[in-house]
Amino acid sequence: MKIAVGLSGGVDSSVAALLLKQAGYDVFALFMQNWHDTTGTLHGDCEWEEDKVVAEMVAKKIGIPFHFVDLSDTYRLRVVDYMFDEYEKGRTPNPDVLCNREIKFDAFLKCAIELGADYVATGHYCRKDEFADANGKTIYRILAGADGNKDQSYFLCQLSQEQLSKAMFPIGDLMKPEVRRIAKEADLPSAEKKDSQGICFVGKVDLPIFLQQKLKAKEGRVVEIFPDFYDNVESKDDIVSLSTPLKYLESDGKVIGKHQGAQFYTIGQRKGLNIGGHKEPLFIIANDMDKNIIYVGEGQNHPGLYRKALHILNDEIHWIRPDLKMTMGEQRDYLIRIRYRQPLQHGKLIYNEEGLYILFNEPQRGITPGQFAAWYNPDGEMIGSGVINK
C-alpha cells in the first residue's frame, strides 16, 4: 500500500510520516506550496521556503522520497477568492475548513493519486474508522482526536465519504506531548518547531491589510449599543426569531469613533478598534454593510453578543454521514461546535423547508455568519456541518 503524506515541515505531519514508515507502508512525502504573496503577513517573507527545507530534511531523515507540488492557483481560486467574497458581504469565512475540503483532500489528493498513492495521510488530530452497513457498503466515520486540547476534527467538517475513503490520520490516537517525544527521540528536524498559526498556508496576517488587496478601505462610524437598549426589545421564543440577529439603527446607540471599513471586522472581535474611554474591552456585536456602520458593546458579557439559535440554508447543509441525513420535520439532539476549540454545546437540530435550525440549550456567544457549525454524537463522531447563514 502506497501512502502520500502531506509533509508541511511541522512536527505533526513529520511524526505521521515516521509512524507510517515504521509500520511498513510504502511512504512518500508531498509538500505543497499554496501561497506566494506576503502582503499582510506577519512573519518572514519566505516562510513557505523555510517549511519546504525542513520538510525535505525530515523526509531524508525518515528515508522516504520527497515531492513538491505548486497548488497556489487552485488555492487562490477556491479558498482566498472565496474569503474575499465572504468578507465583502460582511460574513466571516473559515479558510482552514475550505482548505481541507478543496485543497488537501481534493486537489492535493488528486496529485498524490497521480503519483501512485492509494491514500493521503495528514497530521490532523482526529480519528477515522469504518464499518459495513446492512447492504455491505463501507461507511466512514470521523471522530474527535484523543487529545481534547488539540482535536482538529472541526476543520474536517466538510469532508465527504469519498474523501474519507482515501484519508489517514496516523496521530489521531496520540496526545501532543507524545508526538513531540516521538519526534525528539527520532531526532527529526521539526521536533522543536512551533505550531503554525493563522490562515491555512498563508500564516498569521494583519487581516485588514491582507483584505485590502481586493477590498477598499472606506471610513465609517462605530456605534456603541448600551445594555439598557435590550430592556425595550420584545422577547420572542419561536425558532425563526431566536435565530435572527437584531437589526440596529444608528439612533439606538451613540457614535463613539470611526473605522476603515465594516468588511474588516467580525462578530465577537475585540482587537483593532482603538477606541478608549471604557473600563472593559469593546466587542463587535453587529455590522451594517449597506451603511458601513459597525455596532459595538462593552464587556464580554454584553447581551448583544449572545443568541440561542442559528440558521443554515438547505444548500449549505453537509452530511458526513449521508445515511444519517434528517428527514423533513425531524428534530434531533446533538453536541454542537460553532468554532474551533469551542467546548461542545448541547442543542437540538430542527429541519424544515427553510433549512436547518440549531437551537442551543444555552445562549451562544459570537454566532458568526459564514463560519461553520458542526454537530457530533456523544461518542465523539462528527456527523455533519453547515455554513451559518444567520
Please describe the topology of this protein.
Layout: E1 2-6, H1 11-22, E2 26-33, H2 47-62, E3 66-70, H3 72-88, H4 95-114, E4 119-121, E5 126-132, E6 138-144, H5 161-165, E7 167-168, H6 176-185, H7 207-211, E8 220-224, H8 239-242, E9 254-259, E10 282-288, E11 293-298, E12 306-312, E13 317-319, E14 331-337, E15 345-352, E16 355-365, E17 372-376, E18 381-387
Parallel strand pairs: 1-2, 1-4, 2-3, 4-7, 8-11
Antiparallel strand pairs: 5-6, 6-18, 8-9, 10-11, 12-16, 13-18, 14-15, 14-17, 15-16, 17-18
- Mean model confidence by pLDDT: 91
> Quick one: overall form?
globular
Major β-sheet annotation = 9 strands, antiparallel
Helix content: 10-25%
- Tell me the strand percentage band: 25-35%
Examine the secondary-structure arrangement and name the CATH architecture of the largest domain. Answer: 3-Layer(aba) Sandwich
CATH topology of the largest domain: Rossmann fold
Task: Please give the radius of gyration in angstroms.
Answer: 22 Å
Contiguous low-pLDDT stretches (5 residues minimum) are: none
State the helix count: 8
Given this structure, which CATH class of the largest domain is correct? Alpha Beta
Order of helices and strands: EHEHEHHEEEHEHHEHEEEEEEEEEE
Q: How many DSSP-defined strands?
A: 18
Report, as a whole number of angstroms, the end-to-end distance: 45 Å
Fourth CATH level, the homologous superfamily of the largest domain: HUPs
Q: Report the structural category.
A: alpha/beta
Tally the structural domains: 2
